[in-house]
Amino acid sequence: MRRWYRYGLISAGEFSEGWNETQLEDIRTVKTQTARGATLLEIRKSHQSGFPLHSYGWSALKGELLWQLEFGTDRALSRYVRTIMRDYSSNDVVNSLLRPVNRWLQEDTRDGAIRRLRRFHQCVVQRAGSLTRSSRRSGDIPLFLEAISVKDDNEIWLEAIRLAGQGFSVDVSSTVTNTPVTISSRHEHHVMWCGAGISAGMQKHFSDSIADGKSVMLCGPDCNLTH
């Protein structure tokens, strides 16, 4: 929201008592527009001209990210993803951009597919590390993200990015071992990520943790019991 404000998308006003009603309405409008993938420049042009917003949305951003993966330098790729993370909510970036691109890369069989996927993985891990380090400094809510099962190497880091953007200080256990890890007492929340089901042993560990009153939850696309 601070970036939206500096970009002129939120009305000016005093902050002694927080956002006023006009600013809150501006925020709701911009949130809806960015959720569709509109860029801040497109939104500002619409505001200034009074014409309806025209945007190619997430499709254009996916194309730009794929171009960076193919032709951009490591620095340019990192800068592009960092800018996207500043302009949009972490939920929208991960669910509407990074996860779809990840799926596309996983299924790509053309020349250079392995190189593009490797670059994407490096960029995602780097971005997750940067966000989790900054959240520790800002004193956000401590959360432990544990990989119970994964379909690919990127999904646990994408979830870390999403959670860090929601105000959590995320520590990640990315290695799947089927053995419960020791959680620090400082972590107020424990998320068990299930990308490809959960074993009977880890399911029991989850149930026991719930019975003990711990703040733990299963998360991910596949929380079914596997053998």
Automatic annotation (TrEMBL):
One of its Pfam families is: MlrA_C
Segments forming domain Transcriptional regulator MlrA-like C-terminal: 149-207
What protein does this entry describe?
Answer: Transcriptional regulator
Origin organism is: Superficieibacter electus
The organism's taxonomy opens as: Bacteria, Pseudomonadati, Pseudomonadota, Gammaproteobacteria, Enterobacterales
